């Protein structure tokens, strides 16, 4: 028996799904990617380093912020450029804002309908107008932060090697701090709604990988850790994790010790939950999970935890920035130097890695970009292979629905994965 | 593609309304970052209000329903037709649609994906994919190489405000014309110091405005994502920019948003005009 889904909507990029099952055994379960290749890494070669973030962030229209941050950090590492602590804070703020709006989108508009047995958001919004308003309000708050700091929501403009082209407006930041109480309240209310939805039972042990930093829930910086005892600096990532290019596949999968692994909100919450801010930690406790929690459907609740955490954390960062000299974020002079740089930042969907080599004149010699979806794709397929036998007795239509919901719970981004 | 020089509003034939009496609209996405779709979604309540007024036949970012395959009053197309599947989707959409609109820089001008056309094909793909077998790598071509495009929402990404301003006309079957003004008009209005005064190469004067000068307002140079103005003086602009950047730098910058082929076409036209005159 074959299970085939031609196109999975409500996610970033184009993909279908194909599985073959023989006498109850899953022989194969694969996402069939329908995205065209853009060769972003290839076209960067030979260009000036300043073009890199501008081009690379256009890999993805939902998470351009993290491509912007990671590419710039990799270039700074390559050329030995240091930035002020204010700049680092402002970048972390951008990433938290990205978490808020990306997660709010996925939680409410891409995933929720799956658990309420609906297939379209207009219907969802009509049935749950109050909740929709709340989700939109949270999403708009995250977008507003990106706009104030980055100059634009889709494809932000201000961040560059060495700092920011322009400091954010102090009054606008104050207003965002004022609004944060209301947003936190709404986020907690939305959290109640999500706690009430019925999540399918499923569990499969895997390795959870994410960044880790002493004393904080690592987002912008840190070492690579896993719940299986891994702890390495980001520079060692490429030596420890293997990127595979198979024939006919436009996504280069990644393995750790020959196995698939999981990243993203569910991995971070599992590994770093002790470092969540107060309300987020309280909300997580209210979910009553026991750890490690290996239900991939819980990824959406983990995203809810992170929305709450991100609102708390952005408020804290904005207050710190308001108490400092904001002009310190403006780019200082630096020297262009030859070098190799790597960097990692937590994207909403998991850790994003950039490797870049620059020559003495600042031209790019080599680039490698390892995206979250490329990393968790094999884990997703391994999960589905275990999940299919549980739903074999359902009608074809129901099976397809369940599989769509499963794939969407991972929040894959195919544009990123192919690039 | 080149934005047409004829500022003339053309009325298309009136179409039969859908059963609901609402205009039938599809938003389809080919290969791209999908950022232009997100600009629409980012309009939040204002976008949802718009969806109340129309019948949204296909918008896969927010719905998972089967498209009924019927006629469309308006189709918005984002991205490039890179794969065979993309191409089929596009041709199919054109057949069904009264009005077909390019949504954003990739669809209109080739955008970031078109950059690979300027790189040596085999070495670029080999750099990314060691095993070439089965991976299709066609040159990028804009929508108007495949189908007739009735209107363009320019920009990388599109400007949401501009979208809301022109969509009512499009829904009536009218083709709006974006005023032929440079980015500089809005840039000055925003109170920005001109980047060219600081010798930062900015394409603003030859580029079609309507973006709110969002880049220069963040101290970023205009790199032309909205395309050439119909009447911009490209030659004078080129002469001025020569004092700020090398020819190689200029060419590289024009490749980012697919401006290079449009500039070459404009230069050819200017040359032939001179000859016939």
Please provide a brief summary of the model.
The complex is a heterodimer of chains A (419) and B (277). Chain A has 419 residues and is of the alpha+beta class.
Please describe what this structure looks like.
The complex is a heterodimer of chains A (419) and B (277). Chain A is built from 14 helices and 13 strands. By secondary structure, chain A is α+β, with helices and mostly antiparallel strands. Chain A has a single domain, classed as Cytochrome-c3 Hydrogenase, chain B. Chain A has a 3-stranded antiparallel β-sheet with strand order 1-2-3, with helices on one face. Chain A has a 3-stranded antiparallel β-sheet with strand order 6-7-8, covered by helices on one side. In chain A, strand 7 and strand 8 form a beta hairpin. Chain B is an alpha/beta fold and 277 residues long. Chain B has 2 domains: 149 residues, 3-Layer(aba) Sandwich (Rossmann fold); 94 residues, no CATH class. In chain B, 36% of the residues lie in helices and 11% in strands. Chain B contains 11 helices and 5 strands; from the N terminus they run βααββαβαααβααααα. In chain B, strands 2-1-3-4-5 form a 5-stranded parallel β-sheet, with helices on both faces. In chain B, strand 3, helix 3 and strand 4 form a beta-alpha-beta unit. The longest helix of chain B is centred in the C-terminal third of the chain and has 18 residues. Chain B starts with 22 loop residues before the first strand and ends with a helix. Classes of the chains: A alpha+beta (419), B alpha/beta (277). At the A-B interface, helix 1, helix 2, helix 4, helix 5 and helix 6 of A face helix 1, helix 2, helix 5, helix 6 and helix 10 of B.
Would you identify the regions of chain B where 5 or more consecutive residues have pLDDT less than 50? 2-16
Side-by-side strand order of the widest sheet of chain B: 2-1-3-4-5
List the helices and strands of chain A in order. EEEHHHHHHEEHEEEHEEHHHEEEHHH
Report Rg of chain A. Answer: 21 Å
Write the CATH architecture name of chain A.
Answer: Orthogonal Bundle
**What is the CATH architecture annotation of the largest domain in chain B?**
3-Layer(aba) Sandwich
Number of helices of chain A: 14
Classify the beta-strand content of chain B into a percent band: 5-15%
Cα-to-Cα separation, first versus last residue of chain A:
33 Å
CATH superfamily of the largest domain in chain B: NADH:ubiquinone oxidoreductase-like, 20kDa subunit
**Which residues of chain A form runs of ≥5 with pLDDT under 50?**
none
- How would the global form of chain B be characterised? globular
